[in-house]
Amino acid sequence: MAEPFIYTADELFHWLCAKPDFVLLDVRNEKEFTNWYVEGPHLCPYINIPYYSFIEDVSASVALIPQGEKIRVVCAKEGSAKYVAEILTQNGFPDVGYLRQGIVGWGNAVIPQLVTGDNGYELHQCVRPGKASCSYLLIAGGSAMVFDPARNVGVYTGLAEARGATITHSFETHRQADYISGCQLLKAKTGCTIMANRLDFEGAAFDYQQVNDGETFSCGGVTVQALHTPGHTMGSTCYLVDNKYLLSGDTIFIRTAGRPDLGGKWEEWSRVLYLTLFVKLRDLADDLLILPGHYVTWEEANGQFLFAERLGQLKRQVDAFQIANEAKFKEFISDNIRQQPGVYAEIRRVNGGWLAPTPEEADIMDLGKNECGASKYGKIGISAEAQRQTANS
Predict the structure, then answer these.
(1) What pLDDT digit, counting tens, does each position of 215-229 carry?
(2) What share of the chain is helix, strand, coil (3-state, %, to 5)?
(3) pLDDT exceeding 90 applies to what percent of the chain?
(4) Residue 300 phi/psi, 5° resolution?
């Protein structure tokens, strides 16, 4: 009898980038499965049978699974998936695997993908598929910089070390609300300097260096320029790499802009975001490649599974860029306001250094896809006034 094997989140991602030849079996309860699940570039049969169904009636549960297929089991933390995987092998399934660390492992996975290796430097987009977010690693001349790191900092340090580079700086595009930043962990591991805009990090309980609009930095001779682009937050800052690549954080995505209501001042911030999009970004070259901090679906990725698009194309396809005037833009934001996840307030405190969760608590806080886009997720029926009161509470 074959034994079930254990597979990693990185392996699962790469399988989903190819043509998946297995059935993904999620044994979490129906509510957890509905709220958040595995997503990748390609689809595969994905079914949900809670693990307790196997406890209550093994035969009936096994009968719901396609026979003769490879089965890859997912649960919350690994144990339940292993339990179900063992049942399946005992019932004649010859090729069964279960995910190491469960959906938590999937949520923490960070996959580096090369954007460019030309002109004497490497720029990597580090996709976090469980969060639908992107961080970045720039390596040049023995130096490296990280932008919006996740807590899985070993991905950045490992890749930098493999290239013989030292991470000198960790940049924040803004104070994140949807995931816990890895900048403090990265500083503890490498001694790098944390760089951030004071408008988002004033009073932070850790040392950082203020980033100013238009300020330039050098990474092994490659110029990085900070561009203050407020609206999603008042301190939102994009980083222009070699006048070719704009790391846009949550200012602009492939299909939409960053929502300006998370700080509880949607009316004031929507005007600021409007001016950022239609004045600040207007003067940038249309052939500039935009590399965003988040995505909504894998349909936004290109053939290399990168989230990247020319600014000129974004001006034609992003919904927020199609607004006729400031009043219409405000109406667009109001029409798309929805409740933000309650954990966002706690995450903002963690990212300011005012709350220190345990690693286990951080894993739980970090679960779930981001809700940072101004649209594309759909309004859930909460008024602008109710949203403002919620954000201020």
Answers:
(1) 999 999 999 999 999
(2) 35, 25, 45
(3) 79
(4) -80, -15
Q: For residue 79, which amino acid is it?
A: G
Helices 384-392, 266-275: axis angle to 10 degrees equals 100
The answer to whether residue 277 sits within a structural domain is: yes
Q: Is 257 exposed, middle or buried (0-12, 13-18, 19+ CB in 10 A)?
A: buried
Are 140 and 235 within one domain?
yes
| Dihedral angle sign, alpha carbons of residues 364, 367, 373, 379 | negative
- For the chain, the domain total comes to 2
Same domain, 180 and 117: yes
Same domain, 140 and 20: no
The two structure tokens encoding residue 37:
């699940």
The residue segments making up the domain with residue 212 are 110-336
Cα(293)–Cα(133) distance, rounded to whole angstroms? 6
Percent of the chain exceeding pLDDT 70 equals 95
Backbone φ, ψ for residue 310 (5° rounding): -70, 145
Indicate the SS3 state at residue 90.
helix
Contact criterion met (CB below 8 Å) for 277 and 236: no
What residues act catalytically? Answer: 75
Does residue 63 form part of some domain?
A: yes
In a domain, 26, yes or no: yes
- Report yes or no on 353 lying in a domain: no
Give dist(CA 53, CA 56) in Å, integer.
5
Residue (of 307, 324, 323, 327) closest to 375 by Cα position:
323
What does the chain come to in residues? 393
Residue type, 83: Y
Q: Taking the model in full, what pTM does it have?
A: 0.92
* Residue 107 and residue 366 in contact, taking contact as beta carbons nearer than 8 Å: yes
Looking at 336, 353, 377, which one is the last position of a domain? 336
Concatenating the DSSP letter of every residue in 243-271 gives: TTEEEEETTB-SSSBB-S-TTS-HHHHHH
Give the strand order in the sheet containing 309-310. Answer: 216-219, 222-228, 237-241, 245-249, 289-292, 309-310
